[in-house]
Amino acid sequence: MEATAFDGIVAAHHGEIFRYLRRIASYAAEADDLSQETFLRAYRAWEALAPDANVRAWLFAIATNVFRNHLRSERRRRTAHDTVRATRRELDTEGPEEEAMAGELRALTEAAIRRLPPRQRLAFTLRKLHGLEYDVIGQSLDCTAETARAHVFQALRKIRTTLDGHARPLAESTR
Amino acid sequence: MSDRPKVCVAIEPDLIAAATGEAERPAAERVQGHVAACRTCRDDFARYRAIDGAVGELRATPPPPGDAEAARERLIARLADLRTRVVSYGVFPSPLGPILLARSEHGVSLVEYLDAGGADGSRLFRTAGVETREDATGLEGLHRELLDFLAGRRTRLDWPLDLRFARSDFERAVLQATAAVPYGAVSSYTGIAVDVGKPSAVRAVAQALRHNPVPIVVPCHRIVGLHGDLVGYAGARLGLKERLLAVEGVPTDHARAGRITRHAMYHYDPNPDRQYCLPTCGDIGRRPLGQVKLFARRETAEATGLAPCLDCRPDLHTLQH
How far apart are CA B117 and CA B3, in angstroms? Predict the structure, then answer.
């Protein structure tokens, strides 16, 4: 029965998709909602999926799409409502400045990733944190593999520029 | 504007690729040669290497806290709920016209004769809380069995049923009582009302069968009026009722506009010995259909546990259709 097969997909991929969404979403609760939305959509589309399809890539594409839709509606809401509050909500971890104080290159890098424009952030996360191929990332972001690669490189440049503003950690780590 | 040498600007993409493990070998070698000679790019390379190292650590580190396990449990609960609401369907040709078959995870939920408008007018799309999914391939097996039934090659459709489209518990009770009327047998609306313990609810029984979501499978075509009239069927499809009864060998009288030929059927009026009779046995042929059940064949009567009457001996004097 198909339901059992889909249970297998949940068992195999939910953890990773949740981690991906947790990385790109601002809140744990958001990642929870988005991961549910991702799998409910996947369940509805499951019948139409080709038997030899790359299920992992397919789920990442759905998750990315769900997240981008979420981002768009959040942006609309933010514009319409309380800009100040929304700005404060951007990060629910410790502020990047505090992390800078701690001098942690890893934390700084994470904060820099969070500040990337959405497409660069998604391309970078999919490539560097989840190891997806560029053609798969292109499918998720509706662009070519080359454009996906360009997003990742732009992201690296931006991260570097951000970290250059925190001379100490990067200088220390390159010594 | 950058005042860096052109060669440094040109090599930057390869430099980033090389520092982050993305460069092909020739590009990586080009970068190596360049950084050996250019101090600024050497620094750049080192910075990107450091970023790549930090990203590697991030990759190995779990993301910020969030309860993945709780999220998965919630997802599984929502999927379970969704599954109960999903109804797959397909539209198939049949000798009785196009038919929509629908099934949930619990069983067959709709067998619907379609009008010229096709599936769009189906009650499937007018019922709240149902998620539809077209899956003709998945339902093809049911379609084949249905065709076999309509061709007389199969006398039972042992499908698990999901009576979610029935409108009340009373309707479900009526459908269950109707499902118990065997192949080739005929009962009346009054008889079903008695079977469900509401002998005066004859009209309500007729209404329930009019809305039967799974005709053919729940054989409402085997239920006739008190005088053997075919009365209603799936709206105004009396012709279909007659055809279905004909497939099962139930004789109908064309001259009397859609009435079963009662005198050509075996009769059973509940008795302690559970004996069935010829229609000529005593006054059984004149008793109201509300208390009598009719059988086209002796075999069907005997398959339900009845024995031939010892007076009229239907086993010796078989009826000819």
Answer: 72
- B24/A contact by beta carbon, under 8 A: no
The complex scores an ipTM of 0.78
> In this complex, do A28 and B82 lie within 8 Å of one another by their Cβ atoms?
no
Catalytic-residue membership of B277: no
> Of B16, B75, B104, B132, which to mutate for an interface test with A (greatest number of A Cβ within 10 Å)?
B75
Q: What is the pLDDT along chain B (321 residues), one digit of tens a residue?
A: 567 899 999 999 999 999 999 999 999 999 999 999 999 999 999 999 999 999 998 888 877 677 888 899 999 999 988 888 899 999 999 999 999 999 998 899 999 999 877 888 898 998 888 989 898 998 999 999 999 999 999 999 999 999 999 999 999 999 999 999 999 999 999 999 999 999 999 999 999 999 999 999 999 999 998 888 887 777 677 788 889 999 999 888 766 667 888 888 999 999 999 999 999 999 999 888 888 999 999 998 999 899 999 999 999 988 876
Segment 228-267 of chain B within 8 Å of chain A by CB: none
Global pTM exceeds 0.80: no
C-alpha to C-alpha distance for A136 and A138, rounded to whole angstroms: 5
How are the residues of chain B apportioned to helix, strand and coil, as percentages rounded to the nearest 5?
A: 45, 15, 40
Nearest to B142 by CA among B163, B116, B121, B160: B160
